[in-house]
Design goal:
mainly alpha; 4 helices; 67% helix; 0% strand
Length: 79
């Protein structure tokens, strides 16, 4: 969830063609600390098997339930 950004067609195309501009915009929009957390997470290795997939699914089912009960709740990423 921390890695989701919604853009209109125009900006999606512009940022696709200029990834450095996109990185700069993300830093301004989300903050440097947010990007550092995403960078750490992308470097991590998650061993995957059925038990882990089930655990991840359970986590997100619970997060969605919390969001449905409280629209202001911010969904927490699994990792």
């Amino acid at each position: 969830m921390m890695n989701a950004v919604t853009l209109c067609h125009h900006h999606h195309r512009a940022f696709t063609e200029s990834p450095l501009a996109f990185a700069g915009w993300l830093e301004l929009e989300l903050g440097a600390g947010h990007l550092e957390i995403l960078t750490e997470k992308c470097r991590g290795i998650l061993k995957e098997n059925k038990a882990v997939r089930d655990e991840i699914a359970k986590h997100y089912r619970e997060e969605v339930r919390k969001k449905e009960q409280n629209p202001e709740y911010v969904i927490v990423s699994y990792n």
